[in-house]
Amino acid sequence: MDYKAFVDGPKTLIISPAGYGKTHTIAECLKHTFGKQLILTHTHAGVSSIKEKIKKTNTPPSTYSVETISSFAQKYVHAFYTGTDIPDQDAKNYHSFVSKKSIGVFESKIVKEIISKTYAGLFVDEYQDCTKDQHAMIVTLSNVLPTHILGDPLQGIFDFNDDVVNFGSDLSEFEKFPELSIPHRWYQEGNNKELGNIIKGLRGLLEKKSPIVFSPDDDNGFHVMLVQAEDFWNTESNYRKGLRKIINNPEQNPDYESLLIIVPEYEDIQNGKGFPRGGINDRVKMRTQIDYSKSLKLLEAIDDKAFYSIAKKTDELLVKVGKAHKPIKKINEDILNYLFNKTDLKKWINDDVLVNKSSQQDKEKSEKIKVVIINFLHFPSAINLLKIILEIRDGLKLRYKREEVAYSLRRCLKQSEFDQISVYEAMKKNRNTIRRSGRKVHGKCIGTTLLTKGLEFDTVAILDAHKFDCPKHLYVALTRGCKRLIIFTNKTTLSPYKTT
Amino acid sequence: MAKLVKLEIKSFRGVGDLTLNFNNDQNIVCFIGRGDSGKSTILEAISAVLSPSWNLVFYDTDFHNCNPKNSIEIKASLTNFPDKLLSEEKFGLYVRALDSTSKEIIDNVILDDIDGTLKPILTIKLFVDEGLEPKWTVTNDRQQDDKQISSSDRAMLNCYMVSDYLDRHFSWNKGNPLYALLKTMDQQEVSEEKNVVLKSLRDAKSEIDRHQFEELKEVTDLIKAQAASLGLNILNAHTTLDFKELSVKEGRISLHEDAIPFRLKGKGSKRLASLAIQSALVCNGGIMLVDEVEQGLEPDRIKQLVRSLKQNDSGQVFLTTHSREVIAELDASDLTLIIRDQDNSTIESRQLSNSREELQAAIRGCSEAFFAKKVIVCEGKTEIGICRALDKYRKTKNLSLMAFKDCAYVLGEGSSLVPRTKEINCAGFRTALFCDSDSQTVNHEKSSLKAEKVKVIDCEDKKNIETQVFHDLPWDGIKELINYFLGTHKTINLELLKDSIRLKYPAGKEFPEDFPEKDTSDLRAALAEVSTTKNKEWFKRIDHGEFLGDVIFKYIDGMDSNVHLKKMLLSLSHWIDSDGL
After folding, report:
1. Residue B361: is it exposed, middle or buried by C-beta count within 10 angstroms (0-12/13-18/19+)?
2. What are B143-155's pLDDT values in tens digits?
3. Contacting A residues, span 90-119, partner chain B, CB-CB under 8 Å
4. Would an 8 Å CB–CB cutoff place A289 in contact with chain B?
5. A191-228 pLDDT, tens per residue?
6. What's the ipTM?
7. Co-location of B454 and B544 in the same domain
8. Which residue of A lies nearest to B144 if distances are taken between CA atoms?
9. Residues B331 and B361 in one domain
10. Which residues of A86-103 are buried (b: 16+ CB within 10 A; e: fewer)?
11. Interface of A with B in 311-340 (CB under 8 A)
């Protein structure tokens, strides 16, 4: 591609399919720019991957700066907005408030002067994820700085409220460059070049909203397994046998050690009523079915409600447990039931008492639980609650329902005691840190397209592919694997388009 | 380049709390005011807050009332500062705005700015508390935390003070005006520019290294032998200059004339040379501070200097002065009066305005007024003379001299009398008008002047000062005046004088031929008339007026207390001592 022409244009746009070297393109562009370039993307993970790529090209750090769009907007809004109505940082409307107000800030003549004295050009990555407000902010900036947009409308899956930018109608001012055409990710040494070409073909169909046909090509790592969705719950079905082969990996295929299982999220229409499927609770259940090797990691959304609600419940418990009529029941219902499997737990704690055990071994275990519970009831502190959780986990060997929630809570219980802050405060800090630093995800995981966008695995297994009702989500699912793709579906021809 | 548009000083030396605004199109600001009014402190404050040094030493005495409990806080708001400081990683996010129409500094820069009147402003704050550690930050009122500003960032503002301790101004140190000038002239990359001085220095050293130092060789050889006997091989030892001694940081590299370093030159030359370096810097944009600009300079050089400083169009010059030459060269709008309140607790400033021609004329015409706190505007030279005599009289009464009371008397003359009085009063000085009552135009203005709190000291209705004197002075005094007149006018003798008085004597009344022995009211009236005959006035010179005054004060104690002349002059004297009206 002609990098120079792309950076020389005042407002330019290039469509870059997943794995086609978007980040690489940004790094190459920097060889043709003068002055400091501002590079904006959406996630902290995106920031670090761009930084990493640019570093390899030996570009001087003084000539670029990479940030998330929201932290950039946040910086300016906090510096210049003089109103007193900025919501709390953890409030729901905080980010939309900031991007709304940022438009006015960047329209100010003085701020424009600051921007133009600081930067000489602007790149925006993953443009399909911009909200309308963020788009308006970028348009304002594009009147001050030469602006170059990279993105892929087919990966625009974060359109929850229908308020994201529309590539077709919103970007007419931008000069469109020829779409990137080489699937670099698959062409790399050790990856599966042919799989890249197959996915490229599927992309073409999805773009045209044509029905897509899966033609299995087992030699080239493109596997299609015809299954019925219900069979998932039947241990002896082909569905489960297939999964077992991948997850247990008895043949020790190295490709299966980096594995992502994608569960589609969709709306199940029953009697005219829609039920969301594929949510976290569904995935928790599905995992218990297939996690034969106990190695399958459950991916969680960083800001899943569960993190905050359990932290809040903990703070409440610490205050109220002393006055509770049935204190043990309260601990159980408020906290433990969210961390452990209810049925497993019931074998040890029932209502407000500890279950009588017959075997000597179990009696001892139960006695230990009793000690930590009584201790907590005498001194209801975060640390003493932690001791109960640890005793159940290590003493009774009960598994966590959602490890990440449990581990985060454990960390926050310690933190709250240490910093003398509420568990909820500690949780907010904990989530912020994770959002900033990004998570390293590897090994075997189960998740959704939303949780794995931007990640790469050697092997991807898509469950119930026929349930996808959106071409973008299907496309993101198809592009996560760079060596092997295994599709479980009930038919080979899919039409993942909503009929509206 | 950077221009100061607002200065706020809290608890710094003599200044408790002072805010000064400057127009951003104003290249020169001249502070005038009585000694100890705080002018120099203002310059010191600017110099401190914009100091390119990484540290300044503060003492308890630098705090207002020497009380370190009241922290020193100096804020300088600048416009047109270097682009580099405007960038986001420097202070872009801390920028405020100057509304160039209302001249106000606002923190909400995202206001609709359709006319494009907003300009970026940087407010630098110097804060010193009882720990005596100075802290420089960039600040605003948007509830952001202040951000530290380094000495090298401050150095970009090119603010320097011409002071008496200016030896360092002649060396090429970082942080000195010569170095700053080098930087502004040098367009090369930063890394190269840093090394210009250092490189010359290294070249110089290698030149010295070539020198053999033959005279010292004998001793060196002895040492070599001695060392060898102790088992140390230093055969390559030789003598040369230690590079340490050449360190640029020590300021060893400086301007010389022939072999004489500038720092050893006379005070006057040093000052002028330092001014030359800095005015060159100001031409490139920069802030120059000159305390008592006239020091060590002849009047013509003062004028030349002020004129050339005023002509620069990119930098900003702050001056203080006690010199008429300086303010006569400047426009009224260049002047800022610094007035310290009587009880020394508060300082006020007043910027004079260009818009009134009369003020400009008042400044040119009676600049002395602008260095005082109280001003007596005199109707004529006679009154000036009387004021001089009053000063002598006050001394005999053990009253302080008028200068001690910060009181000046200036000439108002003719049609400019009332306008000048008004301008001076309006500029913030306590003003008294010392005048006659024989001019209808002036009489009409008196009530409005009184309303503006001008103290009016005047004669009885329709009388001028001579009429008043000849009416009120004891006859012996009048005889002295007649003798003085005859003594100073050799062409006139008593007979001629008698003739002219006779002419003014009321018709039908018998002229007392024994003149000047007998005192009659008709004679007094005729004498008054003769003494004020157009172009033949007896006292219309300062020295004559002074004699007139001397005579009045000689007899004043003997006069009846309700004699108008006595009442007039004593109330003037009283006004000089008073704080109120």
Report:
1. middle
2. 889 999 999 899 8
3. 104-105, 107-111, 113-115, 117-119
4. no
5. 999 999 999 999 999 999 999 999 999 999 999 999 99
6. 0.76
7. yes
8. A79
9. no
10. eeeeeeeeebbbbbbbbb
11. none
